[in-house]
Amino acid sequence: MSNLKEEDVQDEEMIRQRTLNMRKRVEEIMRNGATLVRESNGLPKAGADFELYNSFPTFNAFMKRSEERLNALMGKVTNSIGCAMRVPDVGASVEHYTECVIEAQDNIAERVATLHEALKKAEKDEIVKVPEFITKAGPTNNKTEAEISEAMKTFSANIGTVLAAKFRERREEAAQMIVHEKPQKTYNIIADNSVAPFVSVKHHAIEKRSGIVVVDDDESGRIGWTNAEAETEEEHPYIAEILNFKVPESQLESAEPKKFNALKNTQLTMVDTKEKLEALKDTLNSVTEFSVDLEHHEMRTYLGLTCLIQISTRDEDFIIDPFPMWDCIGILNEPFTNPKILKVFHGADNDVLWLQRDFGIHIVNLFDTYVAMKKLKYPKFSLAYLAFRFADVILDKQYQLADWRARPLRNAMINYAREDTHYLLYSYDMLREQLLKQDKKDLNVVYSECNDLCVRVYKKPVFKPKGYLTDLKLRFTFNSRQDHALTSLYKWRDVVARQEDESPQFVLPNHMLLALAEQLPRDVGGIYACCNPLPHFVKKLAGQILKIIVEAREVKLEKVKVTAKENNDAQEARGVMSDSMDHITSILKSKIDFTHTKFDEERGEIHIDKTEESSDVLRKDELQSLISVLLSSSIPSTEAMVVVEKGKKGDVKKIKKLVDELDKFVTPFECYQMMMITKQKQEEEERKEAERKRLEEGDKPKTLFSHHDAVVVRKPQFDSKLLNVDTVKVGDSDDTQQQRDSTMEQDKEPPVFDPSRFSDDQLMSKKAMKRKREHAKRNIDVSVVLGESSSSDPKKQKTDAELEEFNYEEADSSAFEKPVKDNNAEFDPFHQKYRLKNKSKTNKSMKKSSNRSGTINYKK
Amino acid sequence: MTTTIPPDLIARLQKFDQLITKIEDAIEEIDVGTDKHFERSAHEMALVDSMSMFLMDSLLWAVQATKGGGADKNEDLLIDLARTKRVTADMKAINARQDAPRINKTAAANFVRNALWEVPEQGTSTETAPDPPVKMEE
């Protein structure tokens, strides 16, 4: 239950009332809007009356005026809620209006969606405040003049031509930016790519321990990288200073943020000579704070190369080109390590290390705006966002990934570089104020975190022979040959990179490395095929690569099992639990619902303040659940408590009976459990039975047969109704077969044979059939053949008396004159008549192509 | 050909005009400026925003009418209308939540307690336990 005071309750009531009023008003307005639409439908339409009425000046003027008013309304509505829209000019086309309106609607819809989400999540009576990022971000559609004009340019002109022009511009720029000679060569910057550990240089240190003399380098900045043998790699040269560092009071106090000067009013100094550098050092020693940023290159160098240092004070901007005076930059260490001067960075993690590595510059008294932004829980932590929020400037980030080694530096790049630091000091002021407002301790926390950044010591990357497990995303497991190739190539790549002072990625990109290891090409052409586009060093040292691959091919082929430990280590290094994921996909593919927690997937992990008492899951107020209701009324326990109405007596016996019944009652789940147990027992028993039986019986029935076995006499089974009375003797197997061929039926005793079911040719032998036919012919009753009389008569005559002579004269011989129709002659299933008719001398066998092959043509 | 605009059309045009005026006045009332708008509670802000969405669609419809109509064939507008409808429906649901009745704790407690009680029988045993303490949270 919330502990609200009287006033708060009243406030909430007020807000509730206000909301109710607002609802009424909103409903009213929406009703009016709907009526407006209805009325609009009643107005004259184009193609019907509209053109006619539009010819009337009054009508025309009225319509124009209405459009003006509606236009003004649109603008007003969107402005009042903070989603400004591109208001079309009066008289613009319907399409243009639609476009602008839809655009505005998109913005509003986005915000409404967020609000609805927040409202739905909230509890019933809670007054939901607008989520911070909506208010903090301010009007999301407030574009600066520059942006609007830029957008207008693109929209008004033909988009195609504008984009083509931009593309051309970029291409020309890129062509001009080619670095012809490596600056390391030009300016004689020596890099130590050896495996020896990195030794840092200490320029201005307070004495650490008495008895140990620390040899300082002199101010001229002659850095002897081998001189500082006394220092071990592990020790930070300024550890004493940093540990004893206390934030100056002035930095912890609240002060009015000092707005930056406009870019065009600020002097920019390009520092590329030793004298200018000295002057800069003096300037920096005289100020109380300055902002720093570095531009770094990592492609054409093994360890990395700082290409540019940008420094801004309150009044001036400086850009240092370190190449010409590489060894002298170290003199800047003085202001950098002065604990009284504040250095402002954005995202100093890497900058600190780069300064150490290249110039031996360390930092004491650092403020990192990135850390501050995270502490203040901004929606975005980028420098661009910072500049946008405080300077209302859109930083052109196209040069972020450009090659900064190029000299001379182009104006656009110089401009981009100085903007990175120009607004940083003002942003620092604003962030400091916000941190102090949020919580006095927060500023100290930020400083301590920045302190931790300063303590970091640069260490050279150590080559790990199996490093590819973590560095590369292996799509599948390699066999032993591929694994050997991969390991060897990985090492070779590193060696070449160190030698030539290039990055491994430049020598042989990861995907090409994997392709080579996978395919193990046999010749140089194959190597080139795997590496397309062909890197410079692959071409130059193709022979070495080929040698490695040939070696790998001779390795015995086995599947390499990545040990579980190696796998785990690799996965841990990537921060995931399985092979197929990395830290991005693990969030994307996660099936966990984050909507009710404070974790924002889009922004990633926010710094969770473990000191706070808050939990990630919103607790539902007890008002919403019925738990409290249940708690307030108690349930009678089985032992003693009996709930009764006041004044009436409780019946313990009845209650006991009830309780007993309840105990006897088996819940369905218990039934299921018991059933499962009994089923299991049954199965066990059955299995045991089967086992036992098998052991008892021993001999299994014969299931395999061969031709050595005696022939099995299988007696055919017939339906007893069908069998004949006359039994046929069933001989041994050979006779059986023959007899079965001749007659369909074989009989068994006692058979009942029904001859009427079968036809003559099924039952009788050929001879018997012939006999029967002859017999039938002799005994015909009526002859269908002409001249023949019934059989019975001639038979009678023959048997009775002598034969009467036949009188040929009286006989009708007309039948003999008629041509006898041979019915069978018409029977011509193979069309022989036709064939004989069309028989020609052509060699029919040659007509079909299938006949030709193999046919020897005897014709000469 | 008529030389004057028919009176019913004039009436319709006047009505149209009046409606625009009404909306103008109402907006004038509700408009408190961007900063104040951001200081509203989320519910109010959502109300005004969803109303604005609806209003924008209606205004566009009306503007199209001043140019001869045909807004019902304007596909983009119709799609947007569908989205606005969804938004206003969501808004209604959220409004309804505000109106929904709350649980009356005493009544609910009594209800549950009642369900657990049983009519005692006129029997031999007269053992009765003391009334269990009924805790009512406030």
TrEMBL record, chain A:
Any one GO molecular function term: 3'-5'-RNA exonuclease activity
Listed Basic and acidic residues bias regions: 742-764, 818-831
Feature: compositional bias, Acidic residues: 802-812
Bias kind Basic residues: ranges: 767-776, 832-850
Entry annotated with the keyword Lipid biosynthesis: no
Residue spans crossing the bilayer: none
GO biological process, one term: nuclear polyadenylation-dependent CUT catabolic process
Region of interest: Disordered: 680-703, 729-860
Localisation: Nucleus
UniProt entry keywords in alphabetical sequence: Exonuclease, Exosome, Hydrolase, Nuclease, Nucleus, rRNA processing
Domain HRDC: 479-559
One GO CC term on file: nucleolus
Family, similarity comment: Belongs to the exosome component 10/RRP6 family.
Protein name as it appears in the record: Exosome complex component 10 homolog
Species annotation: Caenorhabditis remanei (Caenorhabditis vulgaris)
UniProtKB/TrEMBL annotation, chain B:
GO BP annotations listed: maturation of 5.8S rRNA; regulation of gene expression
Keyword hit for RNA-binding: yes
Recorded GO CC terms: cytoplasm; exosome (RNase complex); nucleolus
Keyword annotations of the record: Cytoplasm, DNA-binding, Nucleus, RNA-binding, rRNA processing
MF term (GO), any: DNA binding
InterPro entries from the UniProt entry: Exosome-assoc_fac/DNA_repair
Subcellular location: Cytoplasm; Nucleus, Nucleolus; Nucleus
Similarity comment: Belongs to the C1D family.
Record's function text: Plays a role in the recruitment of the exosome to pre-rRNA to mediate the 3'-5' end processing of the 5.8S rRNA.
Self-association state and partner proteins as the record states: Monomer and homodimer.
Name the record gives this protein: Nuclear nucleic acid-binding protein C1D
